[in-house]
Write a structure and sequence with these properties.
Shape: globular
Number of helices: 22
Strand content: under 5%
Distance between the termini: 47 Å
Order of helices and strands: HHHHHHHHHHHHHHHHHHHHHH
Number of strands: 0
Mean pLDDT: 74
Length: 535
């Protein structure tokens, strides 16, 4: 018996066969609706009557194999340049219960609503809200403990805080890449839940450790309690290095590719809101927590730790609801040594020029905002009616701008390619930096310019982060995101150290113009690489 076209449908198809089949089957009907109706009625029933039970079982297995093949029909490069083009075509056999109108509606749903309907994303996002808030308030808590227990009236707090910040930064440099390699070997959900629970425990045991060691002799002229704070800070920061790549790797596991831009926009908005809220209300929030704890009959000074440690714990409990559908890592496929995984990540970045380009864009972006953090202090000093310690107002306007940019991207960014969004962002950042070089002492101009810089910065950072997620295979995401966090943290030290020195010698105007030139060159590089990849 000669095989018919209907028989061929149940065979495992390669991407090219899927394309060919879809192309040749279209002329049989006048419109798409009739095609769906034909394939969802009698043909499949007639075909099943001619098959044995074993053949029917084999038919079901083959149908499940068609979908992955169809999804590979759109290459990763097309996804990088055309985020909306990656629409997989399902074989006829999979459309039995799919209504044409609902399918058309799903393909047109963009913005925040599709990701907000995703319960797994909501669990991931809810965990991020509490975790990010705890991260920001943690530093405020440590400074409050230093001020209460260790600083004397004749001392400045700057030296204590500098030691604390250095301790918090060192794990990012030491363990950023290693943590990403381990994340690829472990369950993402386990890492997300475990790191938050352990950070919460570490914060909650601080009061007990300080009470037990209050009469101990100093270690190298440092109070034992302060050494304990440094040690716990080091451990908390180390756990954060595992949490960050696991979080980035989990997003593509629970969000469809067409919704990644909106998901990353929500994450960026949440991160910037936590920065603004955490640093702005951190101190009054901790003070209110202490007062409430005393009213409830608790001992003095425990409310602050309960708020921070409890926020970490709540984040961990929320993330228990997350379902990532990860496949367990096969022991036979594990690399013999963790450094082999690091080499794999570096080789992957070396071979993929689009990933390298996106990483370069992110490094430039974070470097500009790191420099702005230092320059904001000087601007607050030279702007009339503003004090140096009020530089936070300038940074807050930048955070508001990034949040606005993230909202705009999440709602409308899917209509544009990542390359075009990044180019628009670079042009806007260059214009904003040139404007800041002109209006360095006018508050009415500086605030909107810094906000505009944040808006266009979001147009660079969020699409590039989304591009890295879509371009990186699942088994490589932990390594790549670990390397990304490590490289960015190392790169940030240069502008933080040089921006203040450069401003001292050449002035604010020249430094802003120099930053504008760097962003302009980065935008040109991005455009050139995108054109080369298309050719």
């Amino acid at each position: 018996m000669q095989s018919s076209n209907l028989d061929k449908k149940v065979l495992p198809l390669s991407p090219s066969h899927v394309k060919k089949h879809n192309t040749t089957s279209t002329p049989r009907s006048q419109n798409h609706l009739s095609v769906v109706r034909d394939t969802t009625s009698s043909p499949s029933q007639i075909h099943r009557q001619e098959m044995s039970a074993k053949d029917v079982s084999q038919d079901d297995q083959n149908k499940t194999c068609i979908s992955p093949a169809a999804k590979t029909d759109v290459p990763g490069e097309a996804n990088f340049h055309q985020p909306n083009a990656a629409v997989s075509q399902k074989p006829d056999g999979e459309n039995k219960s799919v209504d044409t109108e609902s399918t058309s509606k799903d393909t047109q749903e963009y913005g925040f609503w599709p990701v907000l309907k995703n319960p797994n994303f909501l669990a991931l996002w809810g965990g991020q809200v509490f975790c990010q808030l705890a991260d920001k308030v943690y530093l405020v808590l440590m400074i409050a403990l230093i001020n209460t227990h260790f600083q004397t009236g004749a001392q400045t707090i700057s030296a204590w805080v500098s030691a604390l910040m250095m301790t918090f930064t060192i794990p990012a440099v030491l363990f950023g890449s290693l943590a990403g390699a381990f994340v690829d070997r472990w369950s993402k959900k386990m890492v997300l839940v475990g790191t938050n629970i352990w950070r919460g425990i570490l914060v909650l045991i601080i009061p007990s450790l300080l009470w037990l060691t209050q009469d101990w002799q100093p270690i190298a002229m440092l109070p034992v309690g302060f050494v304990i704070i440094l040690g716990i800070t080091f451990l908390v920061s180390t756990l954060t290095q595992f949490f960050a790549p696991a979080e980035q790797a989990a997003i593509p596991l629970v969000v469809k590719e067409k919704d990644l831009l909106s998901a990353n926009s929500l994450y960026t908005t949440t991160m910037m809101a936590s920065v603004i809220v955490g640093f702005a209300i951190g101190e009054p929030l901790l003070a209110a927590a202490d007062q409430l704890w005393l009213l409830l009959g608790g001992s003095d000074g425990l409310g602050k730790e309960i708020v921070v440690g409890g926020s970490y714990a709540i984040a961990g409990l929320i993330l228990l609801l997350l379902v990532t559908n990860e496949k367990p890592h096969a022991p036979t496929k594990e690399s013999p040594h963790i450094f082999a995984d690091l080499r794999d990540g570096l080789r992957f970045l070396g071979k993929n020029h689009r990933l390298r380009n996106a990483l370069i864009q992110l490094i430039i972006l974070f470097s500009v905002f790191a420099a702005l953090t230092v320059l904001a202090v000087r601007m607050a000093e030279v702007i009339p009616n503003l004090k140096p310690q009020q530089f936070g107002f300038l940074l807050a306007s930048g955070g508001v701008g990034i949040g606005l940019g993230a909202v705009i991207l999440g709602q409308f960014g899917q209509r544009f390619s990542y390359t075009h969004l990044s180019l628009i962002g670079c042009v806007g950042m260059v214009a904003s930096l040139i404007g800041l070089s002109i209006f360095t002492q006018q508050l009415w101009a500086v605030l909107p310019l810094v906000m505009t810089l944040g808006i266009f910065g979001a147009l660079v950072g969020i699409p590039m982060q989304t591009a890295i997620q879509t371009e990186t295979p699942t088994e490589m995401r932990g390594k790549v995101f670990g390397l990304q966090n490590n490289v960015i943290n190392i790169a940030l030290t240069l502008p933080l150290g040089l921006a203040g020195v450069a401003e001292t010698f050449v002035g604010l105007q020249a430094v802003f113009l120099g930053l504008a030139a760097i962003v302009f060159l980065g935008g040109l590089l991005n455009w050139y690489i995108s054109l080369s990849s298309v050719d």
